[in-house]
Write a structure and sequence with these properties.
Helix content is 29%, strand content 28%. The protein has 267 residues and is of the alpha+beta class.
Length: 267
């Protein structure tokens, strides 16, 4: 079914509440510039955020050496209400791309990742005709309660780990500490996708890029995981590791960081 979806900027609080209700991951990206509500008539049926990852300039320079962070946005979070049919996600992307061309004409690319580590090859981007540009291996920790912990949000654990081994700092949890705490370190594939925002950029995509972009898309059989089983040693897993995405302990500060926003807004 085709919908006449409209895109409007919304308050951060509304966007985060919607995402944390309907998205599989409640952790929000920090470098967000636009919180977009997707409306079917008067009803908000989706949210998509635009901004950057933790290294805005380095990310784009690794793909397009002549670009800067001002030339692109990255999708931070994207989700739709579960009552909407699956193909409506590609319609949401089309509506957002149209909105960007109107209100952000200076942007050259819309960039995103599909989270293969939780079993997502990126079918929604494939349906929306994004270009695929290969994958990287990404690390996550799994807490003893099944919580998915990104290394960026493991600061408190790293501080405890450093104190335990008598160091000032550690940037990755040591194997002995993880074993003591019942924490696992797992690698999985993260798939990159991009949408050029003009016909000219579309035609010259591979001329301007270090990465080879194409539409030979990954599928479920391309998903892969491996787990640290000793210092410097990883073993391939037969199946996807089990995450408890509803568990929020280590990530609670990030997940709840927006809670004061509504109070401030109502003052």
């Amino acid at each position: 079914m085709r919908y006449d979806l409209k895109v409007r900027e919304i308050q951060k609080f509304s966007a985060v509440e919607f995402v944390q209700t309907h998205h599989y991951s409640k952790v929000m990206p920090k470098l967000t510039k636009h919180y977009l509500g997707i409306f079917n008539g008067d009803e908000m049926v989706g949210v998509l955020t635009l901004g950057w990852g933790t290294q805005p300039l380095q990310t784009i320079r690794k793909l397009f050496p002549d670009c800067t962070s001002e030339d692109y946005y990255e999708i931070g979070k994207m989700c739709m209400h579960p009552d909407m049919p699956r193909n409506s996600e590609s319609q949401m992307l089309s509506a957002v791309i149209k909105w960007m061309k109107t209100y952000l004409p200076e942007k050259k690319y819309l960039y995103t990742w599909a989270d293969g580590i939780v079993g997502k090859p990126g079918y929604v981007y494939q349906a929306a005709n994004f270009y695929y540009g290969g994958f990287i291996w990404t690390d996550v920790y799994i807490g003893p309660d099944g919580e998915k912990i990104h290394p960026r949000t493991s600061k408190q654990l790293c501080q405890e780990n450093a104190k335990m081994i008598g160091k000032d700092k550690v940037f990755w949890l040591t194997f002995d500490y993880m074993k003591l705490k019942g924490i696992r370190r797992v690698k999985g594939k993260q798939f990159r996708y991009i949408m050029p925002l003009s016909k000219q950029l579309n035609k010259k995509l591979n001329e301007n890029s270090v990465v080879n972009w194409h539409k030979n898309y990954p599928k479920h059989e391309d998903l892969q995981w491996k787990e640290m089983t000793a210092v410097g040693k990883y073993d391939i897993l037969d199946t996807m590791p089990e995450f408890r995405l509803d568990v929020v302990n280590v990530n609670s500060k990030n997940v709840n960081s927006h809670k004061g926003t509504l109070e401030q807004f109502l003052r």
